[in-house]
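Here is the promised in-class demo. Please do not try to memorize the tokens; focus on the logic of going from shape to residues.
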């Protein structure tokens, strides 16, 4: 007889293989799941070898049927400047990717563009 942990391990491995790249509606109570700035795919925080803990200000939301395990914001953002999706989050800091002026600025990845507030309150990467 297989132990519960052995069955769970097999189920998680199948989930990762079968569901790679799929998204499900309502994965997060606020906004969209965190996107890993290194891979540009959803940050996987569930069980298994590719799991990573969520960064600061995010919590792991695991679907009861184990269809997904993604990092979600712990609270609703005050204002979302992006017209499509949420601002890209830096995987290393857990903060919005900063693309404005100054020494900490980083260019946005290819599928994102830099959205700068006219009053210079933010400069974030938004999906194109």
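The designed amino acids, position by position:
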């Amino acid at each position: 007889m297989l132990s519960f942990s052995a069955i769970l391990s097999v189920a998680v491995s199948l989930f990762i293989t079968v569901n790679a790249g799929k998204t499900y509606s309502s994965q997060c109570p606020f906004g969209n799941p965190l996107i890993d700035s290194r891979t540009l795919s959803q940050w996987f925080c569930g069980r298994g070898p590719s799991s990573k803990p969520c960064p600061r200000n995010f919590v792991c939301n695991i679907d009861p049927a184990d269809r997904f395990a993604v990092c979600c914001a712990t609270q609703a953002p005050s204002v979302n400047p992006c017209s499509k999706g949420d601002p890209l989050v830096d995987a290393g800091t857990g903060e919005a990717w900063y693309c404005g002026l100054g020494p900490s600025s980083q260019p946005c990845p290819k599928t994102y563009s830099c959205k700068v507030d006219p009053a210079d309150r933010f400069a974030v990467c938004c999906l194109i």
